[in-house]
């Protein structure tokens, strides 16, 4: 078993079905996310389809404790732009809302930003730290 949140490219190569290109893509995407919360997020890695995922799923694990959270009350645009789940407008809206209304007191405060739908909020919530 290989922890995809902790593995370097050599360790990822130990997963049957993962070559150098996929190992590199997994690490790049992991860094953008700040770590994986669920195994299924590997399906978001470019070129990793459901067939490949089914091949590697039983060889990997995800330690959620190793994610790098986004500190929503201090994050600047540069901190948010690495995050793949947010658009440019959504990132700006998060920062603008904080400037206008003060710090976020809970994740539910994000629902007051109209361009953040419940699906986006549920995707980013595990990564948000107040």
Describe the structure.
With 130 residues, the chain is mostly helical. It folds into two domains: 2-66, Orthogonal Bundle (DNA polymerase, domain 1), CATH 1.10.150.280; 70-129, Orthogonal Bundle (DNA polymerase, domain 1). The protein has six helices and four strands; from the N terminus they run βαααββαααβ. The protein has helices at residues 9-12, 20-33, 50-56, 77-80, 88-101, 118-124; strands spanning 2-3, 60-61, 70-71, 128-129. The strands form two sheets. Strands 1-2 form a two-stranded parallel sheet. Strands 3-4 form a two-stranded parallel ribbon.
Fold topology:
Blueprint: E1 2-3, H1 9-12, H2 20-33, H3 50-56, E2 60-61, E3 70-71, H4 77-80, H5 88-101, H6 118-124, E4 128-129
Parallel strand pairs: 1-2, 3-4
Report the C-alpha radius of gyration, rounded: 16 Å
* Percent range for β-strand residues: 5-15%
The secondary-structure element order is: EHHHEEHHHE
Number of helices: 6
> What is the mean predicted local confidence, pLDDT?
96
Fraction of residues in helices? 25-40%
Total beta strand runs: 4
Number of domains: 2
Category by helix and strand content:
mainly alpha
Low-pLDDT parts are none
CATH architecture of the largest domain: Orthogonal Bundle
Give the overall form.
elongated
Strand numbers in spatial order across the main sheet: 1-2
What is the CATH class name of the largest domain? Mainly Alpha
Major sheet size, sense and barrel closure: 2 strands, parallel
CATH fold-level assignment of the largest domain: DNA polymerase, domain 1
